[in-house]
Amino acid sequence: MAKKSQTAFVCRECGADHPKWAGRCSECGAWNSLAEMRLPGGKSPAREVAGYAGEAPRITAIGEVEVSDTPRESSGLGELDRVLGGGLVPGSVVLLGGDPGIGKSTLLLQTVLGLQDRIECLYVTGEESLQQVALRGRRLGTDLAGRAGELTLLSETRIESILAACSKSLPGLMVVDSIQTLYTEELSAAPGSVSQLREATAQLVRFAKRHDVIVLIVGHVTKEGALAGPRVLEHMVDTVLYFEGDPGARFRVIRAVKNRFGAANEVGVFGMTDHGLKPVSNPSAIFLSRHEKPVPGSVVMVTREGTRPMLVEVQALVADHPGGGSRRLTVGLDQNRLAMLLAVLHRHGQVALFDQDVFLNVVGGVRVNETAADLASLIAMLSSFRDRPLPQGLVIFGEVGLAGEIRPVPGGPERLTEAAKHGFTRAIVPRGNKPPKPIDGLEVIAVAHLDEAIEAVD
Ligand code: TYD
Ligand code: MG
After folding, report:
1. Ligand 1 in contact with 316 (CB < 6 A)?
2. Which ligand 1 atom sits nearest the alpha carbon of residue 99?
3. Atom of ligand 1 nearest to the CA of 178
4. pLDDT tens track for 279-322
5. Taking Cα atoms as reference points, which of 209, 183, 204 lies closest to residue 194?
6. What are the boundaries of each domain within the chain?
7. Is the shortest distance between the CB of 101 and ligand 1 below 6 Å?
8. Looking at 25-29, 201-205, 413-417, which range is the least confident one?
9. Is 20 one of the annotated binding-site residues?
10. Whose alpha carbon is nearest atom 22 of ligand 1?
11. Residue 332 has what DSSP assignment?
């Protein structure tokens, strides 16, 4: 006899299961986040299959496992291949998260249009009508638009119907846009709820593994900044990519936060144009504004995104603020770090900015999350305060400690090589990052304390 359906309580934040309701999730500590969900009773067709990948369980010795190089299919977009660790792996499931309007649908449509001649692709849309997808296809460059006629689309949101439609003519790659619109009738919860997301993703993963199909899933990010039903999906899929950047900005960054087939934290850079997203293979060149003559408050630094060094420009504006309540504002940098740097500048550099408004910005809508931006930010503020520009051809990076010491940062040699490659002739860097042998065309000034750095730009 089929078992009666049971209920479980699932945390909306972390997806943990609890047998009983509680006010607080014992896993992640979130309050009032448990929602009741009905578990499908009896044997559903999907559950008759024993393993996660749909194969019968078998115990194997590690030595018997055949190891071959993972075959990869290029996505046709160099920057996307880069974040994926070299291309798409057959049978893998990739989750692409990001704010609404950032370009997830555009990117995946471009990918499938480019792949058309090599792999059979299917684009499942639950969010937009077939017409909207077709219209977007036409907008994307002439070479891709020409091929848009061959792409197969499916407008459906019931997961079982989608998989049934695919099983008849198996595609090599399937895009699901978006996971939040999918549902299974086995659960009573609304589409987009944690239980529905989890079930739909589990079914897609099983399908991908069983039929060796590449599945690309679009997931929207909620206001809190996490993927709706956050970590629930991340652990189920092979690769998690996040689209970052301001929907209004021209450049977007895709970051791999998890990758079973490559390095995590790798980034790919794209520019949004009238004809879709264009990969930017040399980001250093675009994030620099290259002023004709030096301007006060502008400093070029070398940041590192994944394994890639990138030149970006940090700008500071320090302006008189008569009376109390001066403002401190950062864009693309950590606000708390600014407060700390101002304190260090006061104490160890004898420059007080308490009666000044201070604004810090990273040009091009880039976010720099690493401490290597400290020294560049500090020197940019000083340059703006003194209204004295820094010489052209100078790059600065390094972490600033509370005692005014300049601490080394990871990847020193790559950063310096990148600066030299783009024609920079002088670099102020932490002493710990001084290269063992000189770099052609680059004079390296190694500093251990803030005094020395200030002196070097005097
Ligand atoms: P979209 O890919 O639909 O974003 P998402 O699926 O992440 O919600 O749309 C991205 C935005 O990009 C949208 O506001 C329109 C714009 N866009 C362009 O600027 N150029 C283009 O060629 C296309 C297709 C979209
Ligand atoms: Mg979309």
Report:
1. no
2. 7
3. 6
4. 888 888 777 767 778 899 999 999 987 778 889 999 999 999 88
5. 183
6. 1-43, 72-281, 286-456
7. yes
8. 25-29
9. no
10. 276
11. S
Q: What is the CATH number of domain 72-281?
A: 3.40.50.300
Tell me the average pLDDT of the chain.
86
Ligand nearest to the CA of 270: 1
Pairwise CA distance, residues 15 & 198, whole Å: 8
Q: Is the peptide bond before 178 cis (omega within 30 degrees of 0)?
A: yes
In the 3-class helix/strand/coil scheme, how is 232-269 assigned residue by residue? HHHCCCCEEEEEECCCCCCEEEEEEEEECCCCCCCEEE
Fold of the CATH domain 286-456? Ribosomal Protein S5; domain 2 (3.30.230)
Q: Name the E strands within 82-140.
A: 93-98, 121-125
**Separation in Å, CA 82 to CA 69, 252, 261, 415, 425:** 17, 15, 11, 19, 29
Chain centre distance of CA 405: 32
The annotation status of 33 as a binding-site residue, yes or no, is no
Rounded-to-integer distance, Cα 21 and Cα 278, Å: 49
CA of 44 to the centre of ligand 2 (A): 31
Nearest to 42 by CA among 94, 1, 82: 1
Q: Which ligand is nearest to the CA of 136?
A: 1
Whole-number pLDDT of residue 224: 59
Q: Is 106's C-beta closer than 6 angstroms to any atom of ligand 1?
A: yes
- Is residue 82 within 6 Å of ligand 1 at its C-beta? no
87 Cα: distance to centroid of ligand 2 (angstroms):
22
**DSSP tag of 193:** S
Give the pLDDT mean for 56-68. 83
Ligand 1: residue whose CA is nearest its atom 23: 276
| Cα 105 to Cα 15, 94, 339, distances in angstroms | 26, 14, 39
Does the Cβ of 102 fall within 6 Å of ligand 1?
yes
What does DSSP say about strands 276-279 and 267-273: parallel, antiparallel, or unpaired? Answer: antiparallel
Ligand 2 centroid to residue 136 C-alpha, Å? 11
Beta carbons within 8 Å of 355's beta carbon, 6+ residues apart:
320, 321, 322, 326
Q: What is the pLDDT of residues 233-280, one digit of tens each?
A: 888 999 999 888 776 777 888 989 899 988 887 888 898 888 889 988
CA 197, CA 202: separation in Å to the nearest integer? Answer: 8
Name the residues around ion ligand 2, CB cutoff 5 A.
105
* Ligand 1 contact via 138 beta carbon (within 6 Å): no
The angle subtended at Cα 310 by Cα 291 and Cα 287, nearest 5°, is 35
